[in-house]
Structure formats: C-alpha cells, structure tokens
Amino acid sequence: MQLAMMTNDGKIELPEKIIRQFSPKERFIVAVEGNVIILNAIQQPRLSDIAEKVKEEPMPMDEIVKEVHQYRKERRYSKCLR
C-alpha cells in the first residue's frame, strides 16, 4: 500500500509507481464510498473493435451526403431563429 497526498489546490498526487501504469491524459471514473475514493480507468474501445460489432452494411455515400446536407440545412435554419 502506498500513500497519496492532496495538495492545497485540491489535487490528489498519486505515487510515481502508480502513475507509470497509466497513459498521460487517461480518464477515470471517480466514486466515493465513505472515506474510500475509487478510481476506475475508462477503457476507450478501439475503432476496430467497434467496427467488428457492426453487422449492417455500410451506409452508401449518397445517403451520407444527403444526411450531411440535411444536418447543415437544419443548423442554418436554427441559427436564423436566434
């Protein structure tokens, strides 16, 4: 077990040995239960893993273009209402 320390500005400094186990800018879910702080690293799914789960055929390019045009049209309209 190692010690962590809270700084005057409210940041918790973790021991170097723990810090090296994670990537810079890694994100965590934080939970507090009584006097226990729990940090769970968020595992970002790889794009290839997501692509494997997709069972449908890819969207045809003309349909993508149509969706983009519709979105832009709606966005322009909503800006006019402001």
Q: How would you describe this protein?
A:
This protein is α+β, with helices and mostly antiparallel strands and 82 residues long. It folds into 2 domains: 5-41, no CATH class; 47-80. It is built from 3 helices and 4 strands; from the N terminus they run E-E-H-E-E-H-H. Strands 1-2 form a two-stranded antiparallel ribbon. A hairpin with a 5-residue loop joins strand 1 and strand 2 (12-13). The mean pLDDT is 87.
**N/C terminus separation:** 56 Å
Number of β-strand runs: 4
Cα shape: elongated
- The proportion of residues forming helix, as a percent range, comes to 25-40%
Mean pLDDT: 87
Structural class: alpha+beta
**What topology, given as strand order, has the largest sheet?**
1-2
* Rg, alpha carbons: 23 Å
Major beta sheet, specifics? 2 strands, antiparallel
Sheet-strand content, in percent, reads 15-25%
As residue ranges, the low-confidence spans are: none
Please give the count of helices: 3
Overall number of structural domains = 2
Element-by-element helix/strand order:
EEHEEHH
